[in-house]
Design brief:
The structure holds 2 protein chains of 2 kinds. By secondary structure, chain A is an all-alpha fold. Chain A has helices at 3-15, 20-32, 34-53, 60-76, 81-110, 116-127, 135-146. Chain A has a domain at 3-53. The longest helix of chain B is centred in the C-terminal third of the chain and has 26 residues, at 67-92. Chain B has a single domain (21-92), classed as Winged helix-like DNA-binding domain superfamily/Winged helix DNA-binding domain (Arc Repressor Mutant, subunit A, Orthogonal Bundle). Classes of the chains: A mainly alpha, B mainly alpha.
Chain lengths: 147, 94
């Protein structure tokens, strides 16, 4: 078998999909031809990369374990009635808290709340320095006092 | 005698060396380029077969073609891939 023929079938040889006789012929050639053997090595390395790049295969054992665990929990009834009731109570508390918080926020935004307006005005007064005594007036008053 | 399975012990010793990693990168680059340069139908059949491990019948269904067409596509894909990789190695890795 010559190099050209070997090169044509090399990928199939590496896959092991050639018939027995051709496999043996390629093998004999590779053992005596360093150039073709080198290429075979490189080709095999490249094809191995495909195997490495494949997605992580599904772990059947893990899936079975998880399903078995869930079934076991259902059978043993680990979730007691008290825990189930507490779950509903906690869910209701979260919803009520959310509703009241939302109502308060709405009051603040719309400015219709009784106490909210005053709080907002105070805040505006503190932030807005126009309500404070201008520095010019301060000096004028001071000047008059000195006179 | 040459063995298609390769020298695994030697490979495992080299696996951590920078040279080995660089070589793996080179091979991966060559492989990806070679796959990308395949005609669309061959590339699809090859990826479905090699990366997704689909059987010929499943590939035929996805590609809306016959099983014999898939066989032919894969045969040509592998031949072309081998040729492109050979050209790459001859140019770059000698």
């Amino acid at each position: 078998m010559d190099c050209e023929k070997v090169h044509k079938d090399l990928i199939f040889y590496i896959e092991g999909s050639l018939d027995e006789e051709t496999m043996r012929s390629v093998e004999d050639h590779l053992s005596s031809c360093s150039s073709c053997a080198g290429f075979a090595d490189m080709l095999r390395t490249s094809l191995d990369i495909i195997e490495k790049e494949k997605k992580i295969p599904e772990d059947r054992e893990f899936t079975d374990k998880v399903i078995a665990g869930i079934s076991e929990e259902r059978k043993t009834g680990k979730v007691t009635p008290l825990v189930a009731i507490l779950r509903y109570v906690a869910a209701a508390a979260v919803i009520i808290f959310g509703v009241f918080t939302g109502m308060n926020i709405a009051k603040v935004v719309s400015g219709t709340g009784d106490n909210v307006t005053g709080a907002m005005d105070d805040e505006v007064y503190i932030i807005n320095d126009l309500y404070q005594e201008p520095i010019e007036s301060f000096f004028l008053l001071k000047y008059k006092d000195d006179e | 005698m040459y063995s298609p399975s390769g020298d695994m012990d030697n490979d495992s010793h080299q696996a951590d060396s920078p040279d080995y990693r660089l070589m793996q990168k080179d091979h991966a680059y060559a492989l990806h380029n070679a796959i990308d340069s395949l005609p669309a139908a061959q590339r699809t059949a090859f990826i479905l077969n090699k990366y997704d491990d689909l059987k010929y019948a499943e590939i035929a269904e996805i590609m809306n073609t016959s099983i014999s067409s898939v066989e032919s596509l894969l045969f040509r894909a592998k031949r072309n891939l081998q040729k492109r990789l050979h050209d790459y190695y001859r140019k770059n890795l000698k």
